């Protein structure tokens, strides 16, 4: 039974169930129009349609996420912090909530303003990074400011594989050099001429606060990768490498009240093996069977047939050509890919 009033309509439970069963078998009253978009006309939208393959995202950022600790060059966060001691909370927050900072291989801080009173374990960020620092000492001739601190990601290179190359502190210059012993990546703040003479095959990366200095004037073969202003309208923080387009510099917010913007350096460098196409060539694959077959062919050869020639050059050419033909007939061939500058070759298909 149902009760109808002028203000509202009430139904019993059985009536609602019957209405539901009746409505599920009704055809839709709205007739589709062929002029509608295909997305609306499709009845089972998203269910019967084939799933599109997920496209691989490109770009230097996505490439760095895919191989955060296996990139050809290390990712670097460079910042003039102007006292690192009171920026630790900001640094911990960035490492916790920003994946790029957490996976960054090197954190390079200038103007750390640290002194021997502050121990290294007080600024060490759990077990993620190892701390290497050079504080401004009293014997340097300058009491205020200064200091360099480098934090190395242990997932990229642990503490046992980092060697300190040089330390120097003066009123106008602070030099601090580090080298991972297991790889060709280096971060150096030392005399470049001496370093390049000792480590000619090493990837040189020079980062820091250069103020008005221009390192490219002294070393023309270096490239500067920071192209935007880092303090007001001036570019004071630089990054130099011997490779063109090896880094993409991205501006990040400064730490605390520092007036220098933080710089995130994303590696763009590609190895020569990936930049240059390999060259395919065929080589002979020598086995015990092929050597024995060649020896039998040489023993059965009629060498007197080649002797009538009186010219030594013609005789030598005939002998070499005959032996080369025997080698091609008895030895299997293999197709290899040879990379430019690589000592090793990668085997391909073998034709027996």
TrEMBL record:
Annotated region (Disordered) at 43-65
Reading the lineage from the top rank, the first entry is Eukaryota
Which stretches does UniProt call biased (Basic and acidic residues)?
43-55
Show the InterPro entries listed in the entry: Endo/exonu/phosph_ase_sf
Matches recorded under PANTHER family: ENDO_EXONUCLEASE_PHOSPHATASE DOMAIN-CONTAINING PROTEIN, REVERSE TRANSCRIPTASE DOMAIN-CONTAINING PROTEIN
This protein's name: Endonuclease/exonuclease/phosphatase domain-containing protein
Give the organism, scientific name: Electrophorus voltai
Q: What is the lineage of its organism?
A: Eukaryota, Metazoa, Chordata, Craniata, Vertebrata
């Amino acid at each position: 039974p149902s009760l109808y009033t002028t203000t509202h309509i009430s139904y019993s439970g059985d009536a609602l169930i019957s209405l539901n069963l009746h409505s599920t078998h009704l055809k839709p009253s709205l007739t589709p129009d062929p002029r509608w978009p295909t997305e609306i006309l499709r009845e089972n939208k998203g269910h019967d349609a084939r799933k599109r393959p997920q496209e691989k995202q490109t770009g230097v950022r996505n490439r760095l996420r895919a191989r955060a600790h296996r990139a050809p060059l290390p990712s670097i966060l460079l910042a003039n912090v102007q006292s690192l001691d009171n920026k630790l909370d900001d640094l911990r927050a960035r490492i916790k909530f920003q994946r790029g900072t957490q996976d960054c291989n090197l954190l390079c801080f200038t103007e750390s303003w640290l002194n021997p009173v502050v121990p290294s374990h007080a600024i060490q960020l759990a077990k993620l990074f190892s701390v290497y620092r050079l504080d401004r000492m009293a014997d340097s001739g300058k009491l205020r400011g200064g200091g360099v601190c480098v934090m190395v990601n242990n997932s990229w290179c642990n503490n046992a594989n980092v060697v300190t190359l040089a330390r120097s502190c003066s009123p106008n210059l602070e030099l601090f050099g580090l080298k991972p012993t297991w790889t060709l990546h280096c971060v150096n703040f030392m005399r470049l001429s001496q370093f390049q003479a000792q480590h000619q095959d090493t990837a040189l990366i020079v980062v820091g606060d250069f103020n008005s200095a221009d390192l490219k004037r002294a070393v023309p073969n270096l490239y500067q990768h920071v192209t935007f202003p880092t303090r007001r309208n001036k570019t004071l923080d630089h990054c130099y490498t011997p490779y063109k387009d090896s880094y993409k510099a991205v501006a990040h917010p400064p730490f605390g009240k520092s007036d220098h913007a933080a710089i995130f350096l994303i590696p763009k460098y590609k190895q020569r093996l990936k930049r240059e196409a390999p060259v395919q060539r065929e080589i002979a694959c020598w086995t015990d069977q092929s050597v024995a077959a060649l020896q039998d062919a040489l023993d059965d050869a009629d060498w007197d047939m080649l002797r009538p020639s009186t010219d030594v050059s013609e005789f030598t050419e005939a002998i070499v050509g005959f032996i080369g033909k025997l080698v091609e007939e008895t030895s299997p061939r293999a197709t290899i890919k040879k990379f430019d500058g690589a000592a090793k070759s990668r085997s391909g298909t073998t034709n027996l």
